[in-house]
Amino acid sequence: MLVHGAFAESASWDGVIRKLEAQHYPVIAAANPLRGVKSDAAYVAGIVDSVKGPVVLVGHSYGGAVISGAATGKANVKALVYVAAFAPEAGESAADLAGKFPGSTLGPALAPPVALADGGKDLYILKNRFHDQFAADVPAAAARLMAATQRPIAEAALGEPAAASPAWKTVPSWFVYGDRDKNIPPAVQAFMAERAKSVKTVVVKGASHVVMTSKPDVVAKLIAEAASR
């Protein structure tokens, strides 16, 4: 089960899905609501409950915080795979972790927040900054489509602390990320992987924040390893 993060959507997994289905793995790419860590985790947990059989939960970016909560107490979740993703400890937020080490340039790349009827705000990446900030190793034409179809995240979601004890403490976890990620500094991802006692960590040279889109073969291979363990 693949869970996208902020500013992405389910189609960001298309290349990975093709690779996994070629190996006869059934795949669900969940539509992450991007409204809040707790509510998004509950939504994904409901999808997990609908699956009859073992599940490998895969999260990209903010989706890592979501799967960390969604997998808690789910006996059928056998592995977690963090793809350029947050793996927060209880009480940590995505914003906390993104600023733990220098290197993120996301803040200046954000568009003015969009006001919501409930008083909240939605965040997008500026279209003219999207390619360089989010998907630098994706062809420009594809990045333009990604910028146009990006899903916004509620500003509050990035500051919402993870609640319960995260699933990576009890479920085997794998990590993959690019060394040119401008959203989540690679140093932060290395820290989280070590803290989670990652079974295997793959660092992709030259890869951006959307390593699953630019390097689907690498990401699919790691997911398959987690599934076959």
UniProtKB/TrEMBL annotation:
Residues 2-221 form the AB hydrolase-1 domain. Keywords: Hydrolase. PANTHER family: AB HYDROLASE-1 DOMAIN-CONTAINING PROTEIN-RELATED, ESTERASE_LIPASE_THIOESTERASE DOMAIN-CONTAINING PROTEIN. This is Pyrethroid hydrolase. Coiled coil: none annotated. It comes from the Bacteria. Gene3D superfamilies: alpha/beta hydrolase. Its EC number is 3.1.1.88. The keyword Hydrolase applies. InterPro entries: AB_hydrolase_1, AB_hydrolase_fold, Sec-Metab_Biosynth_Hydrolase. GO terms for molecular function: trans-permethrin hydrolase activity.
